[in-house]
Every structure is written in C-alpha cells, then in structure tokens.
Amino acid sequence: MKQNRKGLLLVISGPAGVGKGTINLSLISRNNDIRMSVSATTRAPRPGEIDGVHYFFQSEEEFQNMINNGAFLEYMRVFNTHYYGTPKSFVEQELEEGRSVILEIDVQGAMRVKAAYPDAVLIFIAPPSMSELKSRLIHRGTESSEAIDRRFETAYEEMQHVNRYDYVVVNDILDLAIARTEHIIAAERCKVSRNGELIEKLQGGRSAL
Fold first, then answer.
1. Is the pLDDT score of 67 beyond 80?
2. How much is the pLDDT for 34?
3. How far is the C-alpha of 85 from the C-alpha of 18, rounded, in Å?
4. Domains of the chain
5. What order of strands is seen across the sheet that includes strand 167-170?
6. Potential cystine with 99: which of 66, 94, 177, 206 (Cβ 3.0-4.6 Å)?
7. What backbone phi and psi angles, to 5 degrees, belong to 60?
C-alpha cells in the first residue's frame, strides 16, 4: 500500500539573482516526477523556442478567451505589452498523473495561485543576506548599475512578503538549498491531509486479517 503519489503544485519565488532558476533545474534533473510549468504568452517565439515546450504561444484573442473562460491559475500583462499566464489544464493533468509541477513566479502571482489552489506549496528562496544578493547581481555582469539598483529595490519589496509563504529556503550553499527543497517536497507528500485514502484503508484493515 503506497502513500499518495498525486503531484504537488510547487510555487517557487525569490528575488532576481538568488538562484531559484538553478535550484529548479536541479530539482527537475534529479527527480523524474517533477516538471516545470509551461506558461502561455502572447509574445512571438524567439529563435529556438518550441510551442508547447518553452511556452504555449497564443494570439491576444486566444489568450483573452482563456481569461474569459477562467482557464488560468494566474496571469499578468508585463509592461502593458504581452500577456503571460499559467494554464490550468496543463498543471492539473500533470498533477493527476502523479507529477509535481514547479511554477517559478513572482509574489503577486504566487498569491493568486494560492487563492485559486489552496493546496499549493509556496517556497521562497532567500539570499544569505541582502548584501550578498547585491554582490551576486553585480557579478552576473548582465545589467547596468541602474538596472541592478531597480532589481535590488524590488528584492526588498519581495522580502516583505516572505511570511505569506509556507517555507523559506536560504540559498547559501547551492547543494544544501536543493536538498532542503527536496526535503520539503518529501515532507509535504507525507502529510496526513494528502494521504486520506491510505489512512482510510489502514484504519479499515482489521476485517482483512
């Protein structure tokens, strides 16, 4: 008799430069039952991007129809240009087939997912310190000093919402942060609230003896 293997909806957030993308890729490579969510977007595909793999590419009309039909767990319009959203159908199919799904989204998106799917597990990836985060942003060497300052201010704002998450994982040493996140996933799968069928069978097992 096995414990519940229905997938978990994992919402992972954290400031830019904290390493959440690296953690997520590691989780997927180390666990064959974890997937990244595939978002829908109205922007055009970039070279090398494949529809249904990197994104579900849609027209504005198609995206608006999905909004009207309540087909998104969460969605947003970025800089008043392109829409991005998490389709319910993809996530729910993966969960029913026993695969956990990672949504790497910002704080506002995380709160919308939690409201729509209270069973979601919210994990915030935090830096060892804010000074270390700024150092990481600088050493990435991909942005101007003005852009780094904007990201740093956004990070401070995001940190104010950590207490709305279920867990916080400090990414001080990458391997430890990955292990901590895997331990959270394992513990969530063992929750009594997720194993009602198993418990019911065990409690009624006397007649089978």
1. yes
2. 96
3. 23
4. 9-37+99-208 (3.40.50.300)
5. 34-36, 100-104, 9-13, 121-126, 167-170
6. 94
7. -60, -40
